[in-house]
From TrEMBL:
This is Pimeloyl-ACP methyl ester carboxylesterase. It comes from the Bacteria. PANTHER family: 2-SUCCINYL-6-HYDROXY-2,4-CYCLOHEXADIENE-1-CARBOXYLATE SYNTHASE, AB HYDROLASE-1 DOMAIN-CONTAINING PROTEIN-RELATED. GO terms for molecular function: hydrolase activity. It comes from Promicromonospora sukumoe.
Length: 550
């Protein structure tokens, strides 16, 4: 599909100040302050007016970079634990920068957040391929920007939250799960797990630190890093939960935004105000994605998709019941899976992860067929390595920081009856994958660190430049109507739609999406609102060697 027609972003009155125009002019001409430059007088003295009246933090010291790899620099930036007490206890944040490969044409810093919550941005930056052939960003982006990954407080190298011992984590992972019970286990066992988890958080973590892990603080931290870099404005790309961070930053610091792209948006209203409904939407999206896989498997025929012999739904239900009655023992495979037991509920987890990635659809068909024949290696690999919780990243390493951010952001969820009612609603729909969302917020019912001042204002980005919102028509994590809601909520935003299946679209869905995102980030040129890009490749269950049908 050809590149979408684009329109040039109109100037915003909020941006038309002498200081900002001077900085933008210097950046475009290639004369902007170089990497690691001292903070400019205007950046240090201009204090944004924020909607929540939090007192401004003192300007941080310039970043002291140390080279830590090819084109990579690493540093720590100290920020206030509580912005209401900016001169009080400080938190050290890990920051990694990939230097622009064409410094003469450098625009500025591109801040990135890959989501989770709990996925380290530092890992995303370290995975950059300067050639653009692989990796999270195109060669044009990498050449024009210093790509900056700040691990949010409590995530990755910024003192990642840990609540369970390795033994406790392994014990919970090894327990048998009953897929007929919402949540995968009997309610009493789920309560026991939640109490063990939250007691561990209270024992091993400072409660004030846990309470501070909210997205509004992440946005304030990002602005502190911006100031330490000496940047007047930031360009921002956020995916999945990163689409909560981006609008939060644009709402608190609209004049600090140069350009912003958010990919696979979260509904920020649900995130802030109705998390159980948000998780219910995730359950529906999981099911919609699996249903499309079944439909595609049937339509492509048994030569392409042998699993189920033309009736994949019936074969799938039988396989899950058989595995729950008699789990498979999976031997360890070096570099692939540590081995273990594959029961019905674990298979559902593997299927949920694979169904949401269209390039894995042929492998999913092969994995189910192999499990039917007694080999559970592939599905066990999916659970051990790719299962997410539920907005991105390996579950075993991200569960603790993921939970801490959610519980800091969300309203109190102390009423166990509300959790049970939400789980019953999912169970009553008879969904195959509903157990992933049912009771997944139960840890917040016992969370030991209440966040008394979480930000609850609408995240509308008023005063920031127009935001490019990229949504997928079928997304097993971020349903399409979330992207539509985000576009309506953010002032002057533009919706770019990707067809077919997948969670996030940039760098996974073909040149139509990639060129539109690059144009927005580099030039501030957005596609027409409502532009649709067809995903390349499209979802298929057909293995590469299978003959094409009529």
């Amino acid at each position: 599909m050809p590149s979408p027609t684009r329109r040039t972003r109109p100037p915003h009155a909020a941006l038309l100040t002498a200081t900002v125009l001077a900085v933008v002019s210097l950046a475009v001409s290639g004369c902007a302050a170089g990497p690691g430059a001292a903070i400019t007088a205007s950046a240090a003295s201009t204090v944004p007016t924020t909607p929540d009246a939090t007192p401004p933090a003192p300007t941080p010291d310039p970043v002291d970079w140390a080279e830590c790899g090819p084109d990579l620099d690493c540093a720590t930036v100290e920020v206030p634990l509580e912005y209401a007490e900016p001169d009080g206890e400080q938190v050290a944040l890990s920051v990694v920068r990939h230097r622009a490969t064409d410094p003469d044409r450098r625009i500025g810093s591109l801040f990135v957040n890959p989501g989770g919550p709990g996925v380290p941005a530092s890992e995303m930056v370290r995975s950059i391929d300067p050639s653009g052939e692989t990796g999270p960003f195109s060669a044009d982006i990498v050449s024009r920007f210093d790509v900056v990954g700040m691990d949010p407080r409590g995530v990755g190298e910024s003192d990642a939250v840990r609540c369970l011992t390795d033994e406790q984590r392994a014990e919970q992972a090894a327990e048998d799960r009953d897929p007929t019970i919402p949540g995968g286990k009997p309610f009493g066992q789920l309560l026991k797990d939640a109490r063990t988890f939250t007691k561990g958080c209270a024992t091993h973590q400072d409660r004030a630190f846990l309470a501070s892990m909210s997205t509004d603080n992440v946005a304030r931290d990002l602005d502190q890093v911006r100031a330490a870099l000496g940047e007047e404005q930031v360009t921002f790309y956020g995916a999945s939960y990163g689409t909560v961070v981006g609008p939060m930053y644009a709402t608190l610091f609209p004049e600090r935004v140069r350009q912003m792209v958010i990919d696979a948006p979260v509904d920020t209203d649900l995130w802030q105000n109705d998390p159980l409904r948000l998780l219910d939407d995730v359950a529906k999206s999981n099911e919609e994605t699996l249903d499309l896989w079944f439909e595609t498997c049937r339509a492509e025929g048994t030569e392409a998709c042998a699993f189920g012999d033309g009736d994949p739904e019936a074969a799938f239900d039988t396989l899950i019941a058989d595995l729950e009655e008699k789990p498979l023992q999976v031997p360890p495979v070096e570099g692939l899976t540590p081995g273990g037991t594959l029961d019905g509920a674990m298979t559902l987890e593997g299927v949920r992860a694979a169904a949401g990635v269209r390039t894995l659809w042929p492998q999913l068909a092969a994995g189910l067929l192999a499990a039917q024949q007694g080999n559970g290696t592939f599905l066990h690999f999916m659970v051990a390595n790719l299962t997410v919780a539920p907005f991105g990243g390996p579950f075993a390493t991200l569960q603790e920081p993921h939970t801490a951010v959610r519980c800091a952001d969300w309203p109190a969820l102390r009423n166990l009856g509300e959790h049970r009612a939400a789980a019953r609603e999912i169970a009553d729909r008879g969904e195959r994958l509903g157990s992933r969302a049912a009771f997944s917020a139960l840890n917040c019912a016992f969370w030991p660190a209440a966040n008394e001042d979480r930000y609850t204002g609408e995240l509308d980005g008023a005063g920031a430049p127009p935001v490019l919102v990229v949504g997928g028509e079928v997304d097993n994590v971020s349903p399409y109507h979330w992207a539509q809601a985000m576009t309506e909520r953010l002032e002057d935003s533009v919706l770019l739609t990707r067809t077919d299946v997948g969670h996030t679209s940039y760098r996974t869905s073909g040149p139509c999406i990639d060129e539109a995102v690059d144009a927005a980030l580099v030039d501030g040129v957005l596609p027409d609102d409502g532009t649709v890009c067809e995903a390349v490749p499209a979802g298929t269950t057909r293995p590469p060697s299978a003959p094409a049908g009529e």
